[in-house]
Each structure stands twice: as C-alpha cells, then as structure tokens.
Write a structure and sequence with these properties.
- The chain is mostly beta strands and about 200 residues long.
- The protein has a single domain, classed as sav2460 like domains (Lipoxygenase-1, Sandwich).
- It has three helices and 13 strands.
- Strands 3, 4, 7, 10, 11 and 12 form a six-stranded antiparallel sheet that branches. A five-stranded antiparallel sheet has the order 5-6-2-8-9. Strands 1-13 form a two-stranded parallel sheet.
Length: about 200
C-alpha cells in the first residue's frame, strides 16, 4: 500500500512556533538551520523536517508521515514544530522531536529526515547554503545533551538527509537502538523505499 503525501503550497500553514508541551516530552530532537538563500531558479531555499513511522517491513504506517501539514503524529510521539520557509532568524529554523514512550507498538522504526521543498523543480540541494547545519540532540537520561552536528555542505548534491533512526531492539537501553550517523540520500528514492508518494 502506498501512502500519498501532498506537499503543495496552497494550504500550507504560515510559520508557527513548536508546541512546547510536545517539545518538553521529546527525548530526541532534530534541528535544521540555514541562512536565507535565493538560487539561480529564483526561488528561496526552503528546508523541511519530516518523520516517518515505519512498520516491520520498512513501510509507513497509516498517517505515518509527520510534516508541515500534519505536524503531530496521531499518537503524539512525533512532531514538527516550526515551518520556516526562508531561513530567516538565528539558530535552528526548524525543530522536530520524538518521545519514545509514546511510539505505538505497530511502529518498528522511526526515521527523521531533512528535505528541501520542491528540490528537483527548483534545482536545489543541501550543498547550496553556506552556513547551513543539521543537529540531533539526545535528551534521554543516559545520554543527556549528546549532540550530533553536521554542516549541510557535507551533503552537497543531495536533496535529503537521514538525520536519525530509532529501531526497536529489546537488547538496547529503553528498547530502542539509535543511529545518528547522518547520511545524504535521494529524496525520491527514499520515498519509494518507505512506500510514500509525494504530490506537489
């Protein structure tokens, strides 16, 4: 079964600050930051954070994509807080979080992804912003304040970054194995892997 996600601009909400209640409960945070940039296409560079809740077969569960149009998962385990369309402002422009305790039993893996709005149409990739970055912060008691930080330039010519992965593992602390070794990816290939069809 393919999940269809509409990343259209018509009913896209304006910038909103993240839900503090959801944020305070999150034990894993992803941040994305970049400076305002207008590329050769004439369109601004617009980074987006997304969460994908996957079953044991590696496919998204129903309503298992969290992004700017669905900023909180139905179970409340994952959220996307800020939809910043142009990179204005200091520090992280977009933040998202996960609370492990709230992840439903139907979910085998949670993947945090940074993407670019209409990257192919706008001919954009993560190597374009000069001072962009992506961070992952672990707020669990055993790894309090552990931060992974990578410059966006590391992922030049890629339009997606797999920032972090949580996989169910009974032998791991808290029942989740965590991977924050970030890697660049092709967004379309990644969506096909997760069973997601993006509509623009």
């Amino acid at each position: 079964m393919t999940a269809i996600v509409a990343k259209t601009d018509g009913d896209r909400p304006l910038q909103t600050r993240h839900n503090t209640a959801t944020s305070s409960a999150s034990d894993l945070l992803v941040g994305l930051g970049w400076d305002p940039l207008e590329t050769d296409s004439g369109a601004p560079f617009d980074g987006d954070l997304m969460w994908f809740l996957l079953n044991a077969e590696g496919k998204v569960i129903p309503n298992g994509v969290v992004y700017y149009k669905r900023p909180v998962s139905q179970d409340g385990s994952c959220y996307i807080g800020t939809d910043n369309r142009d990179g204005e402002g200091p520090g992280e422009d977009e933040v998202g979080g996960v609370c492990r305790e709230l992840i439903p039993s139907s979910v085998h893996k949670v993947v945090g992804v940074a993407s670019i709005y209409q990257a192919q149409k706008r001919d954009q990739h993560f190597g374009l912003p000069e001072r962009g970055f992506v961070t992952v912060t672990d707020r669990t008691t055993n790894r309090q304040g552990d931060v992974t930080h990578e410059p966006l330039s590391k992922f030049a010519h890629r339009d997606a970054i797999v920032a972090c992965e949580l996989t169910r593992d009974r032998s791991a602390i808290g029942g989740w194995a965590q991977n924050t070794n970030m890697r660049g990816a092709d967004f379309a290939t990644l969506m096909n892997e997760f069973g997601v069809e993006i509509k623009y």
